[in-house]
Every structure is written in C-alpha cells, then in structure tokens.
Amino acid sequence: MSLTMCRVCANPLSQPDFDRPAPAQSSIRTVLPVATQVYVCRMCGHVQSPDLPALKDFYDTQYRISLDVDGHDQLYENAAGEQVFRTQYQAEIIGRLDVPQGARVLDFGAGKATTLQRFADLRPDVDAHVFDVSSDYVDHWNTWVQPGNQATYTLPEEWVGRFDFITAHFVLEHVAAPVEVLESLARALAPGGRVFFSVPNVETNTGDLLVVDHLSHFTRPSLERFLARAGLLAERIDEDLFHGAFVVVARSGENQPVTQPNPSHLTDVLVRWQALLDNLATRKLEGPVAIYGAGFYGSVIATCLAGQASIFLDQNPYLQGSTHLDLPVGHPGACPKDVRTVVVGLNPARAHEILGDGSPWLPEGADLLFLDALA
Ligand SMILES: [Zn+2]
Questions:
Q1: Residue-level pLDDT, tens digit, the chain, 375 residues
Q2: For residues 275 and 375, is the Cβ–Cβ distance under 8 A?
Q3: Ligand 1 centroid – CA 226 distance (Å)
Q4: Would you identify the CATH topology of the domain 75-261?
Q5: In angstroms, what is the span from residue 261 Cα to ligand 1's centroid?
Q6: Which H, E and C letters describe 176-221, residue by residue?
Q7: How far is the centre of ligand 1, averaged over its atoms, from the C-alpha of 65 (Å)?
Q8: Surrounding residues of ion ligand 1, Cβ less than 5 A
Q9: Cα of 49 to ligand 1 centre, how many Å?
Q10: Same fold flag, 75-261 and 283-373
Q11: Which residues are CB-neighbours of 68 under 8 A, at least 6 positions away?
C-alpha cells in the first residue's frame, strides 16, 4: 500500500476518517464507480481525498463543464427570488479588485473562461490569456482570445514573470499536487502581480467532503499553510464574499500561518455525514418523492434513495426540462400534485434561508424533509 501524504504539509496520513463504498459523486453531478475516502491531516487541518483513477483523462475528455449547452451556467444565488449566475458574480468580484489598466490577465484552469470573457467585456484594455488541461475549449476560446494567448496541458516557459493578475476559479481543489501548481502560478506573476483564486470552504459547505474529484478540501488553517509553502502572502482570505467558498487574493511574499488547525471538528462533521447517509439509505419515505435541487446535494440524495424519488425540482432554467440520474428535472411550480415528500437537496447550512418561510409550490399535504433533520 502506498503511503498517503498530506497535499499541503506532506505529513503522513494513516487511515481514512471516512470511507464509503462506490458509487461516489463528482462535482459535475456524475456518479463515479469509486469509493469516497476522506483524510483529515492532524498537522495542518487540511482535508483530502485520494487521486481519482485516470485523473488526467477525466479532465481531458470527461470534464466538459458548461460545454454542452451554450450559455449554460451554474446558479449561484437564489434567495429572495434573485437569480445570479456564478461566472457573472465572479466577474463582478474581479471588477472590484483594481486590476491595472492594460494588465496581462491569465485565467488558469479556465474551462470556457466565461468569467474572464465577461470581465474583458467590461475592461477591453486587459490582455486576456487562457490555460486549461484540456483542448475541448479551444474552439470557444478562438472566438475571443488570440491564439498566442492560449495554452493547454503545460504552462509555456515564456509565461514565467508575465502576468499582472492570475485567476483560478474553483481549480486548485481538483489538482493532485496543489502546492506545485500554486508555485507555478507564483512564478508566472510579474513584479507586483496578484493571484486571485477561489476554493470551496469545507466548513461552511460540508457536502464538499463527498465530492470525489475535489482532492483537496481546504480549511482556513490549511489554506494559510498552502499559501506559505507556495511563497505567497495573502492580501485577503475572504469567507463571506462567495457562499461556501474561500476567496483569496495573494502576492509574492513571506506568509506566517496564524490560525490553529481544529481536526476534531472535521472528523465530527464526517461522522455526522456518515449517519445522515446511512439514515437516508435505509429510510422508507412516503411517495411519490421529489428532490428539491438537482445540484450536488440533490444528486447525493437521489443516489442514496436508490429509486424512491421520481422527479427533481430546480430553479435553474438551464436544468429544467433535462434529465438527471434518469429522473426528469422540472420547475418547482410544476411539482406533481400527488407528491407526498420533498427532500431538500441544498447545502444544509443554507437550505432554510434559501427556501424561506413559504414554499408556495409545495403540494397540499406534502412534507419537506431537510437534511439537517436526518443527521
Ligand atoms: Zn497537512
């Protein structure tokens, strides 16, 4: 058996703190035939999952985020009836960060680079560059990024010291060697340049622990040590800007971690997830059953319920009318009247807030079942 080491501090890790047999959930809502294992590092507070088999191939050919539907986007916020899409919100955040006039900007792990495209629409002075570990996106990039500013698979040597601003939106949680990758981004900075990245915050979005292609689950202490190891100084590590995520702005410099790790808090969270999933897998719900939310949490629920659910309900117009895990996805307003149980497939930390007091679409006599009632 190979020795497992912490991806942030290289501390040896022994037994997984969570180990559940296949199937597992991916971040793109697919089900993968691998076990879900999670390790908590007692040294730095980082949380991690094993490499996926054939990781390179997964991103090269299977991870086609938002490619199949033009204009597809992930719904970021839906409280108070307001719909904001993720790339739009990310572009707004960057817009507030005083990116210098004429800046050379790189979107690393760009996918379609929709965020940078939206930002460049507002700021035509910036010199946009894109990079990803797949060539799937080149056709889309060609519509707005000049070919000399595109790279795939490895960062070109001539990009060292080039960029005033580098973005990596929800990328670093996917990579096998995050310190190495962040070091390569630090090297690509021009003097005075900044790296802007976001990663899920496992403490406010605990379902992230179950996402098997998120090889790292960052905590504040592990993030501070991660930046220090890559030679970056944090200007800010923000937990409030983006729900369930850390938003980091950093530049080259010495960094002293200040937050103490709290590994037992995370092992407790894993124990609660284990209980919740066992409860869901053995519970007989009054049917027909609908699942509110066809995103990550809804997918976990559908997999656990093994055939008990008959429909997903979701506010995202890009998902309505599609099928997911062999179930139709409909607007909540179109919930079949005979549904007796609606399981709420939203981040338990925010589900009550998102649904608010009223669920006018809920059929008469149907029950709403929240995940936090099952743990
Ligand atoms: Zn560690």
A1: 456 999 999 999 989 999 999 999 988 888 888 999 999 999 999 999 999 887 666 666 665 554 444 445 566 654 445 567 788 888 989 999 999 999 999 999 988 899 999 999 999 999 999 999 989 899 999 999 999 999 999 999 999 999 999 999 999 999 999 999 999 999 999 999 999 999 999 999 999 999 999 999 999 999 999 999 999 999 999 999 888 899 999 999 988 889 999 999 999 999 999 999 999 999 999 999 999 999 889 999 999 998 899 999 998 888 999 999 999 999 999 999 999 999 999 988 889 988 876 788 999 999 999 998 887
A2: yes
A3: 9
A4: Rossmann fold (3.40.50)
A5: 9
A6: CCHHHHHHHHHHCEEEEEEEEEEEECCCCCHHHHHECCCCEECCHH
A7: 30
A8: 6, 8-9, 11, 41, 43-44, 46
A9: 12
A10: yes
A11: none
What is the distance in A from the centroid of ligand 1 to the CA of 9? Answer: 4
CA 74–ligand 1 middle distance (angstroms): 31
Q: What is the CATH number of domain 283-373?
A: 3.40.50.720
Angle, alpha carbons 165-170-172 (nearest 5°): 80
Q: How far is the CA of 97 from the centre of ligand 1 (A)?
A: 31
Where do the domains of the chain lie? 75-261, 283-373
Q: How many angstroms does the Cα of residue 22 sit away from the middle of ligand 1?
A: 26
Total residue length of the chain: 375
